[in-house]
Design goal:
Layout lengths: L18 H27 L5 H9 L18 H13 L6 H16 L2 H13 L4 E4 L15 E4 L6 E11 L6 E9 L6 E9 L5 E5 L10 E11 L21 H37 L11 H29 L3 H30 L12 H11 L4 H12 L7
Parallel strand pairs: 1-4
Antiparallel strand pairs: 2-3, 3-7, 4-5, 6-7
Helix pairs in contact: 1-3, 3-6, 4-5, 4-6, 6-7, 6-8, 7-8, 8-9, 8-10
Amino acid sequence: MTALPLEGVPVSTPVIETEEHRALRASVAALGKRYGREYFARVVAEGKHTDELWTEAAKLGYLGVNLPEEYGGGGGGIAELSIVLEELGAAGCPLLMLVVSPAICGTVIARFGTEEQKRAWLPGLADGTRKMAFGITEPDAGSNSHRITTTARRDPATGEWVLNGRKVFISGVDIAEATLIVGRTEDARTGKLKPCLFIVPRDADGFGRSRIPMELGAPEKQFELTLDDVRLPAEALVGGGTSHAEGYGGEDAGLLQLFAGLNPERIMTAAFALGMGRYAVERAVDYARTRQVWKAPIGAHQAIAHPLAQVHIELELARLMMQKAAHLYDAGDDMGAGEAANMAKYAAAEAAVRAVDQAVHTLGGNGLTHEYGLASLITAARVARIAPVSREMILNYVSHQSLGLPKSY
């Protein structure tokens, strides 16, 4: 009996990772092991950034593995970049800016930027010498991107763009040379506001930032941004307003550009969660193998072993969905990738939260100590449930888009 191909997936496409992917995993895992959780925890405690790990990962070509070769990248895709983030996370030292800089901003510029924008940004994003933040979330918009109030208007006298608005929970603005800001501009034909993306330099006049105190222990800081009559040259608009590349540019491509960045964001968030969950389970398994209270190690008891086996299964299932999403995205199937990326993010976040909870529970009181380093993951694991989109909004998406159920909003 001949096996039927998966819908939308060519027969020749391997479901399991290629040999090159396995080699990449092993190499990144070795890098992560050299740094590990102790390095990560020390950086957080000292209020510093993971500069050493970032620099070494860049030298090895991992940061730009998804970017085009002609601009200094590795010529791969989100499938490869997600492997990098997952393995670093599994070693206890994830790089959150991988989600933002090469995955979101790098992808948007590579797909839709002008030639000048690509030359200006992609080589630096690929070799790690430049970083870019991503600004979409607003205080009053929440999960409703249609309520974004950051606006951009053209100054007819100078041709410049003038931006006004606020953004919140924007990661890494202090270490990024620019922020890719999502704004809205008026459609000359309809008069309605439509999304568009701008590259805003960190030192632009009127571009302010204030740090948001967080309970979350992470090297990457969170900021609130204010844009007060920020003036940008015409070329700051991604795509420049002209047709190019895939036939879309500037003001006419904002929505497509936005979703081109949001799908990788969800896939990479899944990778972030998977790495965290794997790290927690590995710590718990090591402990359960050696911790002895009665005659046998506690891992011999099913009350300990079965929950760990269950979360391991859930993490593996979530990875399969992440791999599907990455494959669809890299193959150019944006619609299929949208559904799979949301599902992958949901599945990975839920699995990570349960994995961390079970790991802490396995260690008992030791799970809450600095020595074992698991307690801090309780807060960190919640991030994947909340950001960049809540699990409830993903369930809304699946119920509407996948199941065809009516909206309530």
